[in-house]
């Protein structure tokens, strides 16, 4: 195994240049800057191997196929590099970091997903410090799991969510502490590091067909009924508070019952930034579970959706998937006693 770090540029703002239509990713634009940055670091940064998706994409165009492609590249090169940095757009970064945590069980290497709010070629870019931090964590730490580095924090990849469209501290992990803090030193909270168990595997696509829907006052049962049709296999229901929904709406409950009866796995998560779904805490939440939905506890919507897609893609029966959605498999969930 080499001591270098593989930098995989999937796209995103960090490598964008100005075009007549606005910022856009351009193949080859980032490599010269990275080489210069490592050269100027006087040995403070590890040597790198650079790869780029062809073509690099704006993360708003990311698909599950992209998640699988990135996972495959990392898995195939696992033995060749000390660590891995995935450069990615911020819009869907938390989806990708979550997906990679499920697609690469027991990977046993640091995988750091990062990017920027300002293109790295700009003077005030946050991308420079994010990339430096990611390279140093990938090269010298024992954080052998998928993480997301942005600003001054290193977050577990399947616990992160984007909280700011334009600020430089764009990501947070409201329901789980940061794995490390990036300051004068990189301070790792070793008690939070998930131990690697078992042999590394790659879970191949295609993934299951899933969707997410957010409840709101006046939500029509017909929306849910129309959504829960083939080819849909799983649904993330972003409910109120501790997992509540319109329990007085019999049409809504009937739509959930119909969906689960035809084999669609319905998982309830909370819309709130903090907290968890609490089964049985409120009658309005219990009604959803009686209709066949299962609680996602404190999973983020991004983690729940990608986990559900990965599990359904493995051909497991729906009962097994529903049960696994209620248990931690990659550090994504804290189940209350």
TrEMBL record:
<dbReference type="GO" id="GO:0004067">
    <property type="term" value="F:asparaginase activity"/>
</dbReference>
<dbReference type="InterPro" id="IPR041725">
    <property type="entry name" value="L-asparaginase_I"/>
</dbReference>
<dbReference type="Pfam" id="PF00710">
    <property type="entry name" value="Asparaginase"/>
</dbReference>
<dbReference type="InterPro" id="IPR040919">
    <property type="entry name" value="Asparaginase_C"/>
</dbReference>
<dbReference type="InterPro" id="IPR006033">
    <property type="entry name" value="AsnA_fam"/>
</dbReference>
<dbReference type="Pfam" id="PF17763">
    <property type="entry name" value="Asparaginase_C"/>
</dbReference>
<dbReference type="GO" id="GO:0009066">
    <property type="term" value="P:aspartate family amino acid metabolic process"/>
</dbReference>
<dbReference type="InterPro" id="IPR027475">
    <property type="entry name" value="Asparaginase/glutaminase_AS2"/>
</dbReference>
<dbReference type="InterPro" id="IPR027474">
    <property type="entry name" value="L-asparaginase_N"/>
</dbReference>
<dbReference type="InterPro" id="IPR006034">
    <property type="entry name" value="Asparaginase/glutaminase-like"/>
</dbReference>
<dbReference type="InterPro" id="IPR037152">
    <property type="entry name" value="L-asparaginase_N_sf"/>
</dbReference>
<feature type="active site">
    <location>
        <position position="90"/>
    </location>
</feature>
<feature type="domain" description="Asparaginase/glutaminase C-terminal">
    <location>
        <begin position="210"/>
        <end position="325"/>
    </location>
</feature>
<protein>
    <recommendedName>
        <fullName>asparaginase</fullName>
        <ecNumber>3.5.1.1</ecNumber>
    </recommendedName>
</protein>
<dbReference type="InterPro" id="IPR036152">
    <property type="entry name" value="Asp/glu_Ase-like_sf"/>
</dbReference>
<keyword id="KW-0378">Hydrolase</keyword>
<feature type="binding site">
    <location>
        <position position="59"/>
    </location>
    <ligand>
        <name>substrate</name>
    </ligand>
</feature>
<dbReference type="InterPro" id="IPR027473">
    <property type="entry name" value="L-asparaginase_C"/>
</dbReference>
<feature type="binding site">
    <location>
        <begin position="90"/>
        <end position="91"/>
    </location>
    <ligand>
        <name>substrate</name>
    </ligand>
</feature>
<feature type="domain" description="L-asparaginase N-terminal">
    <location>
        <begin position="5"/>
        <end position="191"/>
    </location>
</feature>
<feature type="active site" description="O-isoaspartyl threonine intermediate">
    <location>
        <position position="13"/>
    </location>
</feature>
């Amino acid at each position: 195994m080499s001591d270098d770090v593989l930098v995989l540029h999937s796209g995103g703002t960090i490598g964008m240049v100005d075009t007549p239509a606005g910022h856009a990713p351009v193949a080859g634009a980032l490599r010269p800057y990275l080489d210069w940055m490592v050269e100027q670091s006087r040995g403070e940064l590890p040597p790198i191997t650079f790869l780029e998706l062809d073509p690099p994409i704006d993360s708003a165009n990311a698909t599950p196929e992209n998640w699988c492609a990135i996972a495959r590249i990392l898995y195939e090169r696992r033995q060749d590099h000390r660590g891995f940095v995935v450069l990615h757009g911020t819009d869907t970064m938390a989806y990708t970091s979550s997906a990679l945590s499920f697609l690469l069980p027991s990977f046993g290497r640091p995988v750091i997903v990062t990017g920027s709010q300002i293109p790295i070629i700009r003077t005030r870019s946050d991308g420079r410090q994010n990339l430096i931090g990611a390279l140093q964590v990938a090269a010298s730490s024992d954080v052998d799991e998928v993480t997301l580095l942005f600003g001054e924090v290193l977050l577990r990849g399947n616990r992160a969510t984007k909280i700011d469209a334009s600020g430089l501290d764009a990501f947070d992990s409201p329901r789980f502490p940061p794995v490390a803090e990036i300051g004068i030193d990189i301070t790792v909270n070793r008690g939070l590091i998930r131990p690697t168990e078992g042999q590394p595997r790659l879970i191949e696509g295609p993934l299951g067909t899933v969707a997410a829907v957010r409840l709101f006052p006046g939500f029509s049962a017909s929306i849910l009924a129309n959504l829960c049709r083939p080819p849909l296999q799983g649904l993330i229901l972003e409910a109120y508070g501790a997992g509540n929904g319109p329990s007085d709406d019999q049409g809504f409950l009937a739509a959930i019952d119909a969906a689960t009866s035809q084999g669609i796995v319905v998982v309830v998560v909370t819309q709130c930034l903090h907290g968890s779904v609490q089964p049985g805490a409120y009658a309005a939440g219990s009604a959803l579970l009686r209709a066949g939905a299962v609680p996602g506890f404190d999973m983020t919507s991004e983690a729940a959706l990608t986990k559900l897609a990965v599990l359904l893609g493995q051909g497991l029966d729906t009962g097994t998937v529903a049960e696994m959605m209620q248990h931690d498999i990659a550090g994504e969930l804290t189940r209350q006693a």
